[in-house]
Amino acid sequence: MDERRIGDVLLARGLATQEQLAQAALDQERYGGAIGRQLILRQVCSRLDLYSALADLWDAPLVDLIAEPPETELGTAISHRQALDQGWVAWRRTGSQLVVATTVTPTERIASAARSMYGAGSVTFRTTTDWDLWNAVERVHRGTLLFKSQDELAEAQPASSARAGLTGWQSRTPLSLIPLIAIAAAVSPRLTFVVVLTLANFVFGAAILFKTVAAVMAPWQAYRTQRRRLAELRERSRRGLPPVWSPHRDDADLPIFTILMPVYHEANIVTKLLANIGALDYPRSKLDVMLLMEEDDHETIAAARAMNPPDYVRLVVVPPGTPQTKPRACNYGLALARGTYAVIYDAEDRPDPNQLRLAVEAFDRDEFERTYLGSKQKPLACVQGKLYYFNADYNVLTRMFAIEYAHWFEAMLPGMDATGVPLPLGGTSNHFHVDRLLELGAWDPFNVTEDADLGLRASVKGYRVAVIDSGTGEEACSQTPAWIRQRTRWIKGYIVTAAVNTRHPIRFARNTGVMGVIGMVGLIMATPLAFLVYPLCLGFTAATYVGVQFLGLYLPRVVVVTSVTTFLFGNALMIVSAMIAATSRYNWRIGIFAIFSPVYWFLHSTAAWRASFQVLRDPHGWEKTPHGLSEDYESEAHT
């Protein structure tokens, strides 16, 4: 093997200067990794030039695995994960002689492993690029990757998958209510009215109570955090540790972070998407960015390829399959991920520049507290950033959407965390520990609200979810029809998630405890039910008041008072708490629009009824939300 260094070869070939090599060496010292990767990132030389030089150094001629892929039998003899991790793959075999294509320095250790694995007599080496290896492995293992992205969860953990849809009793029960109510109304109209009114108000009141209590508990979470920090200071003093926790990670020690970006029919914003990711403050040599595109989305694929993205971005074309959903695409990318951690960003997302660093720090801190400070908390599976809308003041609909999200991330989630209720995830800016995500079974491709489902599954498996103090700007849907389709999908996913987890309700209660049951009933189940009964509550409350006051309708006083109080007081509570949260997140010009929440909830009700019909007819159908409708609008609302 040639004893020269790669820099000498590139210098001799005129592909790099001394200054460029010196700068790449400084980058390597600061950020870690191979100097060749730093040269490619700095665009000093091409990937092909670098590996051609390495081929000379290693005395292993270059081979193009795209034009000459590995023999299928050799490629499938080891897993795709093993091939990607070890950096080499068996390419050709003639009798007892094995040819290995490698992206790493050929060594006797690799030759010995290859001889043992394939029963070969001798091993020779060829050089290939890392991208060629990745494409070859993906091609050879396509069937396995499709299975992992579509059916693995359903096969390995059928009780956790929505593939089977609703059980018989789950689908029959709601349908049987309609004739039962009709018969009851024919026999005793007044009693039926009282019972339905009472049940509707109970459901609506339970949902309001859960959300209000969660919001009120947010200050308690801040107090608990402060108490925990004081206890940590005392423990640190006792152990002789520095008073303030520090991650103690230089850039060179940061882990590889995989960024999954599923896009579909979004050629109009794919350029800005990569610009937003490019603004992240994280070493480029530690980024593993995958743009996940569907095979039938020719326009987006063409736009992405035309951009000539930077080296740390891989363009992944997800093969056709069923169902064609965002979680399926994310599962496909996860199977190819290189990172210790992985995050999902949607097409229009604008994450805070330091978000990846804060996520790593959160996992490091959790590990430190549990290892050295005796913390009894469950291990972290995921931390999520707070979402806000960069077009919050675009129109009335975006204002209402912004108010809703502010109430969720600034009030409800911290309050739920304080009580120990499992946290459902948002659809983006979720930072996962990859090994734990794989242990959970990754995302359910048959659940159209895969994020909420995964948050509950993490709790069932003994993990927890936390929120970090970092924001991600999203584009609020600014058109009512598109908003209703999006919200239909979300509510349908909540219904399906509730159905999956209540197939075996006793087992679920045993695994999650009281707080898990409260979260399931008070949020996942009560949210769609509250939206379904909202028009009934409003109509029944108005009819009750008018009938009793002016038409001589007799109803038990407790029913009248409870109905009016629950509806009016419940609406007032939600308006006030949402107004406070939105004013804190944005400003009073956004917060004041919370007074229109009762009207906004009619849109939710429309989406909820659509979702109910779709659950029975098309539980896995994915209604795509269009992005880029107000992409160029710059709001002045968020702080």
UniProtKB/TrEMBL annotation:
Main location: membrane
Keyword Lipid metabolism carried by entry: no
GO cellular component: membrane
Location in the cell: Membrane
Sample GO molecular function, one term: glycosyltransferase activity
Record's keyword annotation contains Chloroplast: no
Membrane topology: Multi-pass membrane protein
Transmembrane segments: 202-220, 513-534, 554-574, 586-603
Keyword annotations: Glycosyltransferase, Membrane, Transferase, Transmembrane, Transmembrane helix
Name of the protein this chain belongs to: Glycosyl transferase
